[in-house]
Specification:
TIM Barrel; 8-stranded mixed β-sheet; globular; 17% strand
Length: 240
C-alpha cells in the first residue's frame, strides 16, 4: 500500500523539533510524498507556539517544494473532559487538527478518565483525530474511541513513532487496526516526525497494515486525492 500523505509532522515552532516547514517539504518531495500536515504543538507543551498557525502557515503557499502542506496543529488535551489548549479562534484557521494526551501536560488517570478525555476531545468539531491513542501510558477503552470516531465520521491515527519510542504501543495499535477494520472506521498514518529525515517514515505501520490485511480504502492518507476528499468532507461538516 502506498502512503503518500504524512498527517503529523513538527517543525522548530514546536520548541523541541529540529526542522523548518521547507526542510520537511523538501524531504517529503524527495521521498515521493504528495502532502504533509504541519501539525505543531499547542502552548501547553513548552515551546509550542499557537500563533504560528496564524502568523506563518495561513500566509504560506499551499504548495511548498512540490508538496501540498496542510495547515494543521497538535492540540494538547488539558483535562479529563477533553478540553484543549488551542482556542476556537485559532482552530478555525486549521485545515486538520490532532488532539493528544502528553505526560508533560497531564498525568494519566483511570481508564475511564483517559477514555473520557479522548472522547471529549474528538467531539470538538475542529478535531479530526486523537494523536498516538495506542500510547500504553494512557489506558483507554479502544472500542469506545473507535465507535465514537465512526459515529462522528472522524479518524483513528496509526503513529509510526509510537511503535519505536512509546514502548508497549505496538499491540495497542494493532488492536486499533483490528477494531477499525471490524467497524469500518477510517485511519490516518503518520510519522510524528520531529526532524525532516523522519518525514514519511511509516515502516512499522506498513507492516501492521499488511499483517491485518487492512482495507486500503479506509486509509485516508494513502494519497493526496483521498486526503483532500476527507478535507472537503471536514469543511462541509464544519459548515453544517
Amino acid at each position: 500500500m502506498e502512503l503518500l500523505v504524512d498527517t503529523h509532522t513538527h517543525t522548530v515552532a514546536s520548541g523541541h523539533a529540529y526542522s523548518t516547514v521547507r526542510e520537511n517539504a523538501i524531504l517529503a518531495y524527495e521521498r515521493g510524498m504528495e502532502a504533509i500536515c504541519c501539525a505543531d504543538h499547542g502552548p501547553a507543551l513548552k515551546g509550542g507556539a499557537v500563533d504560528f498557525i496564524l502568523t506563518v502557515l495561513t500566509a504560506a503557499p499551499d504548495v511548498m517544494e512540490g508538496v501540498r502542506v496542510f495547515n494543521a496543529t497538535e492540540a494538547n488535551i488539558l483535562d479529563f473532559e477533553g478540553n484543549t489548549d488551542i482556542p476556537e479562534r485559532f482552530m478555525r484557521c486549521t485545515e486538520f487538527a490532532i488532539a493528544s494526551l502528553h505526560d508533560i501536560v497531564i498525568d494519566p488517570g483511570t481508564k475511564e478518565q483517559n477514555t473520557n478525555a479522548m472522547l471529549g476531545a474528538i467531539n470538538n468539531p475542529y478535531v479530526d483525530v486523537i494523536g498516538h491513542p495506542g500510547n500504553p501510558y494512557y489506558d483507554v477503552d479502544r472500542e469506545a474511541l473507535v465507535r465514537e470516531a465512526k459515529k462522528l465520521d472522524k479518524l483513528i491515527e496509526l503513529n509510526n513513532h509510537s511503535f519505536i519510542y512509546r514502548k508497549g504501543s505496538e499491540p495497542n495499535c494493532k488492536d486499533f487496526l483490528a477494531l477499525c477494520k471490524k467497524h469500518d472506521v477510517r485511519i490516518t498514518v503518520s510519522s510524528d516526525a520531529h526532524i525532516c529525515y523522519r518525514v514519511g517514515n511509516f515502516d512499522m505501520v506498513k507492516e501492521a497494515l499488511e499483517e491485518a490485511d487492512f482495507p486500503e480504502e479506509l486509509v485516508v492518507s494513502r494519497n493526496l486525492k483521498a486526503f483532500s476528499s476527507y478535507i472537503e468532507e471536514r469543511k462541509n461538516r464544519l459548515k453544517g
